[in-house]
Design goal:
Elements lengths: L20 E9 L9 E7 L6 H15 L1 H14 L10 H8 L4 H22 L7 H6 L21 H4 L7 H14 L7 H15 L10 E4 L14 E7 L3 E6 L2 E6 L3 E3 L4 H18 L5 H10 L9 H13 L5
Antiparallel strand pairs: 1-2, 3-4, 3-7, 4-5, 5-6
Protein name: Benzoyl-CoA reductase/2-hydroxyglutaryl-CoA dehydratase subunit, BcrC/BadD/HgdB
Length: about 325
């Protein structure tokens, strides 16, 4: 016995051409003795089309959502660099925490992410094509060109987490990683997982052997790494050698730093030992709790590019040690 065919009407909807959607059956007529004569009444509901202006507004609003992290990063960088917080707060960190509820780390992530997006734009367009500072300052994103949208010819990040793995790479590497990640995502905005995987493969392929030795004195290069903000130019003593990083002891604690963010001073063994002693002395006094002016002095010693203290620096440090009961 041949089973009677069942025809099912499938409801479809496409935003591009605003097709009419099919509604559920409003009235069914069915004769159990003669199934072939069954009648299904179908009503159609019309999808309201958007006007040209509404389509344009929708596109602008979608892009504002996508680029919210980018605009935040650019604005925060201006607030920091121009010190526009100085009338109400002593430090930028206090201002961001009070005004936006942002931690210091989150602010650095946003600023670093906006720099990465600039690099991606530069790599795709062949020239710097940033969103203008005027746009960022005025808070309007309706002036962003269509070519920069994820709906246009260029696929750009839509969240800070997508580009966070890129901050540890050079600009040219950032551009290459993003291109590969977009390809793997099928020409769409890639999730952070795909970006992280591509970054890991590139780092493993281009990684050079770790040639640093315990006790070696190195300079920290902050570059665009938000986690090293404030440490650029500081020196540290290598305390542990890892596969792709070193743990260095600085004047205010220990930090794990990638090889790309370290530069050896090439000091002689005797000079390295002398700097180790100085580091221990500074660290011991700094952890005792000091006035801000005294902290600044120790921070200055933490950025010396010579393997010794001047006579005056030695006297001041010795005075601080005696103040807290420390003796050489």
């Amino acid at each position: 016995m041949t089973k009677p065919s069942s025809n099912r009407k499938k409801a479809t909807s496409a935003a591009s051409n605003n097709l009419k959607a099919t509604a559920r059956s409003a009235e069914d007529i069915f004769d159990p003795e003669n199934p072939a004569t069954a009648t299904i009444t179908v009503t159609a509901a019309e999808v309201e089309e958007l006007s040209e202006m509404e389509e344009r507004d929708r596109l602008h609003l979608e892009r504002r959502v996508e680029r919210a992290f980018f605009e935040a990063g650019k604005a925060l960088a201006q607030l920091r660099d121009r010190r526009l917080y100085r009338s109400t707060h002593k430090t930028f960190e206090e201002y961001c925490r009070s005004r936006f509820g942002y931690t210091h780390r989150h602010v650095n992530y946003l600023i670093a992410a906006s720099n990465v997006v600039d690099n991606i734009i530069m790599g795709t367009n062949g020239s710097q094509n940033e969103i203008s500072d005027e746009t960022a300052t005025n808070g309007s994103q309706n002036e962003i060109s269509d070519e920069m949208g994820t709906n246009g010819s260029q696929i750009l990040p839509t969240s800070e987490r997508q580009v966070r793995p890129l901050t540890k790479l050079e600009p040219s590497q950032q551009q290459e990683v993003w291109r590969q990640a977009v390809e793997q995502a099928g020409g769409k905005v890639p999730p952070a997982r795909i970006v992280k995987d591509v970054v890991q493969r590139i780092m493993e392929r281009t990684q050079v052997p770790n040639t640093y030795q315990i006790g070696e004195v190195c300079q920290i290069l902050a570059k665009d790494n938000p986690e090293l903000r404030g440490k650029g130019g500081c020196w540290g003593i290598v305390a542990r050698v890892n596969d792709f990083s070193c743990t260095v002891k600085s004047w205010d604690g220990e930090y794990t730093v990638g090889l790309q963010h370290l530069k050896s001073y090439n000091y002689l063994p005797a000079e390295c030992e002398q700097m180790r002693v100085i580091c221990d002395r500074i660290n011991r006094v700094y952890s005792s709790g000091l006035e801000e002016s005294v902290q600044k002095f120790l921070e200055m010693l933490g950025k010396l590019n010579r393997a010794y203290l001047t006579e005056l620096e030695e006297k001041v440090l010795s005075l601080l040690e005696s103040e807290f009961g420390y003796e050489m």
